[in-house]
Amino acid sequence: MPKSKRAKVVTLSKTEKKGKELTLRLFAAVRESIDKYQYCFVFSVENMRNTYLKDVRTELADSRLFFGKTKVMAKALGITAEDEYQSNLSKLSKYLAGNVGLLFTSRDPASIISYFSTMSHTDFARAGVTASRSFTVPAGVIHSRAGEIPEDDDIPLAHSLEPSVRSLGMPTSLVKGKITLDQPYQVCKEGDTLDSRQTRLLKMFGVAMADFRVQLLAYWSAATSEIEEVDSIDE
After folding, report:
1. DSSP 8-state assignment for residue 143
2. pTM above the 0.85 mark?
3. pLDDT of residue 37
4. Are 107 and 62 in contact (CB under 8 A)?
5. Which helix or strand (DSSP H or E) is residue 227 part of?
6. For tag attachment on the chain, is the N or C end more exposed, with fewer CB atoms within 10 Å?
7. Which residues, including other chains, have CB under 8 Å from residue 81's CB and lie 6 or more apart?
């Protein structure tokens, strides 16, 4: 009888070894980048999306970007003055907490700051995001954009979606083959912390409330060994 794949044993020591190898490679890559590039930026990401971060990598192809494993990156920079890889880099490692990463580049800092200050992508919100505005589905026949565009430019929501809409809490009914609401239904209020039910409804009606943004926190210069907080720069 064929051996079940479910019964396959994975040796823990192998997975630990692979994890350690990846950690060492990241550590080495960060230090190699310190030697290669003129500037090291710390950045934070709001409403992380891999697709948009990939676009950033493409746009800054002559630079190098690291995201995740902040403890490893901090150790590569140096956490104290005694173990920092280059002078003052330990002062940059204090920013490595949360949803942050490192950007190594030799481009002029002003051009990097300008690029990120104008970069923003709107996407559908995920659970846990704060609603940027209120959204209510009007009473009557439910259309695909639920009042977001003129009704003459919209189409009724497909009747086959009625069970899905109702399962998400909307008190709908089918009237002559069309999904209908007897009264307006508020999906969310501005300031709400959205749950998965709300985000599914917002996505169904094409309402995007999450903005992918990258905020530069500070950078280190190889030429001066100084740390500059980006917020303190007059643009």
Report:
1. B
2. no
3. 97
4. yes
5. strand 227-229
6. N
7. 90
